[in-house]
Structures are given as structure tokens and as C-alpha cells.
Amino acid sequence: MGENVVLLGGAATPVGKMQGIASDGTQQLEHEVLAKLVVEALEDAGLRKCDVGSMIFTLPRPYTQQKYFATFMANYMRLPCEGLVMEVLGNGMTPALTLQTAIDQVRLGRTKVALALGINFETGTSAPEHMMSSMRATGDVDFHVPFGFTPIAWYAMDAVRYMHEYNVTREEIAMVAVKNRRHAADNPIAQFRKPMTLDDVLAQRPIVEPLGLFEVPGRGDGAVCIVVASEDVARESGKPFVRVKGEGFYHEGAHQISEVPNDMIAFEAANIAGAKAYSNAGITPGDVDLAEIYAPCTIVEILAAEALGLCSRGQGAGQAASGETALGGRIPICTSGGLLSRGHPAYVTALYNYFELMEQLRGRAGARQVRNAELGLACTELGNYNAAMVHILEAVA
Amino acid sequence: MTIPVETAPGVRPYPPRMSAFTKPFWDGVAAGLFRTSQCDTCHKPSFPPKPVCPHCWSNAVSWIDLSGRGTLYSATTIHAGPAVFAADLPYRVGIVDLPEGLRLATRVLDDSALDEAVELVALIHDDGPLYGARRLSDHG
Fold first, then answer.
1. Domain coordinates of chain B in residue numbers?
2. B14 contacts in A (CB within 8 Å)?
3. Helix, strand, or coil (residue A396)
């Protein structure tokens, strides 16, 4: 492998409602928000505008008026690029593909500095209308969607099967939401920070049984810019950085369900992508100090943690309930608050996960800092974990 | 082997498209037959039916009749749905494993339990057929 690639700087807006509608009078506009973040991220990296050679954007939601957003931004920022300017889409994995493309740009020598960035504005559209679009992304339009499957219905069926096979209680699964809310309380950019108890979670109205309102993601807007650079540039900058130590990807060749019956809750893609990333980094799951897992629902964090070898098979819910995956526990998971509390502006969500690992590995996470954090894992997915992309990031002292 | 055929009220909220290739499948459902494609080369069935075998990529496939029975692998009741399904809320959906070695997703019409035997049922709406799953009836 060529030169080491690092994450040198970053900036993120708080997750929340930013998108307005015409009747508001004035609205926040995507390019204005993102332009400010780019400047902030470059300052964090100790770099200048002329250092940037590639910009890899997450595709904005269809509700963003400005189309060809990447090339529009190249103009808006007046940034000639000799590496690549493009937009990426891959459902929840969109930001991971964006980061990976930026990493590859630097590794291939197309540029020394690449931005992985994006903005997700969607709260101007109601959930039932938004689902008219998202249902077509998480199911076969002719053989699943006509029955009314929603994106998180697949995760709910994971939960039902998991409870059935491992005799796990709904309360144990729901503890993941309580744990992540506790983490979010100390994260200034988290969307939901008000403390909540297990009783609060269990008292919510059902959304996709057995999961209730606080066990499924709220909707939010957000924007992130991450500066990816070669290690020599990073060293010259004099700034702290994190090294990309391992990478793994796997697509199981299925969409939501495998037409050949399999163990759906084994999350094979996460298992294989994780094994590849561990091997690539020369580490084992036990070496990981913290993990940011893309988990739109409580159950997903549990099953992904098991597939990644961070929890034992069938024990993930119990281990979450007993605090093993909480801050201060054996392997803290989703110290940001995760998708349920930090927030889930879907097309940029994983960029927030990388940003959290950068904050942790640079010792900037404040009250939610994992002590002596050296190795962080990020895992992102699409579908019902039909594909997974895993990154291992390393603190560089 | 046939599946029960029942009339269902109104039009389908989000009707599936039909191609020249999948027309025999939907015509079959309407007539109480649950069919799919099977590869002439590797002999594996596929669902949904496909003009190319996903296993060996042969494009020689034939129609076979499935039993229309299976077991419920998982299920959930949806309380918040896309706009077109608002009138159906709440509704139950699930994953069914067929003895022919196939897995599919569909509506679940009752409270059948996981691993319980279920049967597929043709549901004839005003504008065309769909199908669902329910507990296997004794007279089946």
C-alpha cells in the first residue's frame, strides 16, 4: 500500500431542523451552510484553499433545490480542482463511500488533500411523504414496496427474530436508546440531549413493533466537512490527526432479504467487512477502544456489534443493558449519541460518525472522552446491513 | 397446487409493475397459482421470477409451480407508513420461507407466530392481484 492517508480536520453543524420552506420568509440555504463549514474544516486542518485538489460530496436529498450541487459548490467556493469533483449516493452508506473515495484520491496520488463533505436537508418534507421515496430505496419496487414495507420495518423484523432466537427481552434492546441518550447529553452537536429513562422509551407509541418512537431515528438536517490528507501534509501542518489504519467492504449480493433463506440477523456483510478491516489494520476486535456504528434502530447497534466481534453472538443486548457498551464500559459504542440521539441526517450521518471518532482520537470529546482512546472503528451499511463498510482509525500522538 | 383466491376491497395502494416476463406470475396469482422461474441449467428456483438465473447467470429459465406454503421467519406491525398506505395502518408485514428454498416478503394477514406454518393467499383487488400470508388452515 502507498502513502498513509489521514483525517486532518473536520467541522460539523449541530444536527437539527435547518431546512425552511418558502413561507418562512428567509430560509437557510444548503450552499451557504456548507461553505462556512469548509472554511472551518480547513482551518481545523491548518491548510489553505489552494491545498485542496478534490471534493467528494454526498448527494443532497431530492428536496434540495440546487441540482448538480458539487459543481455548483466548486463555483460557489471558486475552487479549481485537479483531482476529482463528484457526488456519491449509496443510501445510508453514502457518506462512507464519500470518505472512501476521498481516501482513494489521496492514496492514488491524484491530490494531497481531498474533502469528504455533504449536507442533508430534509425536514421540510413530512415523514409520510419522505417515506414515499425512502420505501423505494429499501425494497424491490414491484415485489416488496406494494406490501407497504418501510426502511425501518426490516430492522424491526431483525428485532423480532433476535428476540425469538435468543430469548432476549424488548427491555434489553431498548436500553441501547437509554445509553445513547446519556452519551448525547454531553455532545453539543447532538439533536436529542434531554435525559430519558427505560420507562420513557417503553412508554412511547409503537412505530414498527416492537420498536417505539425512541428506538427509531428522528429526522434531522446536518452538514459535515472532513479534510483527508496524505500523512506528509499532515505532519507539515503541525496539527493532531488520525490515521486511516484499516478498511473493509462487503456486499452480500442481496437487497433487504436474501432470496435463499439465510441467518438474516448474522449481518454477514458487517462480519466480513469487519474481518477485512481488522486484518488490513493488523488488529483484532479486542484492540478497538471505541466504535461508532451506523444503527438507525436499537436492534441494529446490537446485531452489528455482534457481527463485528465487539459483543458475543446473542449477548449484545444483554451486554448493552449491563453497561459494557456505554462510556466507561468495556467497549463504548456510539459515544456521539448515535443515530437515535446525536441524530440521523441520513446522507451525511456516517460523516458525523467519523467526525466523532476524530474528536475522540484527538482527545477533544470533553465530558464524553474515552480515556486513552487509540483505535476507533466506524461501520456503515445500506439496506438491512446487506452491505457494510468498516474503517479503523488510529490516533497519532 | 393452488392457493386460496379471495377478493380484496379497493385498488392496490402501490401497484406492482408487470413486464412481459413477469406477466405469467401475476396472471398465475390471479388464477390461484404461485409460480416462479427456475433455471434450466443449474435447476435452482428464484424469487421474484427473473429472466436470468441469479445463481449461474444462465438465461434459460422455465416456470414452475410452488406449493404456496411456508413458515413465517419474521414479522412486524407497521404503525407509521408511507402516505399511500395511510388507510391500511396499522398493518402487518413479514418474511416467509418456502420449502422450495426461497424467501419472500409479503403482507401477513393474521397474528401467526414465528416458525408457524403459513399459506400464501391471492388477494384480488379492483385493479389487479396481490398476495399475502396467513396461518395454514386445517383444510388447506
1. 5-135
2. 145-146, 148
3. strand
Q: Residue B138: what pLDDT?
A: 59
The structural domains of chain A, with segments of one domain joined by +, span: 5-125+219-237
Closest residue to A132, CB basis, from B12, B76, B82: B82
pLDDT above 80 for A397 = no
Nearest 5 degrees, angle CA A247-CA A253-CA A255?
Answer: 110
Q: Among A312, A295, A242, A246, which residue's Cα sits nearest to residue A275?
A: A246
Q: What is the pLDDT of residues A42-85, one digit of tens each?
A: 999 999 999 999 999 999 999 999 999 999 999 999 999 999 99
| Alpha helix (H) residue ranges in chain A | 30-45, 69-76, 94-107, 127-134, 151-166, 170-184, 198-202, 231-237, 268-281, 298-307, 316-321, 338-341, 349-361
pLDDT number for residue A2: 57
**Contact (Cβ atoms closer than 8 angstroms) between residue A230 and residue A3:** yes
Asked if the ipTM is above 0.90, the reply is yes
Residue in chain B nearest A154 by alpha carbon: B76
Please answer whether residues A30 and A66 qualify as being in contact, where contact means their C-beta atoms are separated by less than 8 angstroms: yes
CATH number of A5-125+219-237: 3.40.47.10
Quickly state the pLDDT bin for A179 (edges 50, 70, 90): very high
Task: Decide if B65 touches A, using CB distance below 8 A.
Answer: no
A129 chain-B contacts, CB cut-off 8 A: 83
Nearest to A156 among B76, B88, B90 (CB): B76
| Mean pLDDT for the stretch of residues A20-45 | 94
User: How much is the pLDDT for A1?
Assistant: 46
Query: Rounded distance, CA A166 to CA A182, Å?
Result: 27
**C-alpha cell of B113?**
407466530
CA distance A231 to A6: 6
pLDDT digits (tens, 9 = 90+) for B101-122: 999 999 999 999 999 999 999 9
CB-based contact A54:A86 (threshold 8 Å): no
C-alpha cell read off for A251: 456486499
Contact A208/B at CB under 8 A:
yes
Q: Is B104 on the interface with A (CB under 8 A)?
A: yes
What confidence tier does B1 reach under pLDDT thresholds 50, 70, 90? confident
Residues 6+ apart with CB under 8 A from A344: A15, A217, A218, A219, A220, A296
pLDDT band at B140 (very low <50, low <70, confident <90, very high): very low
B10 CA: distance to closest CA in chain A (Å): 14
Contacts of A141 in chain B (CB under 8 A): 16-17
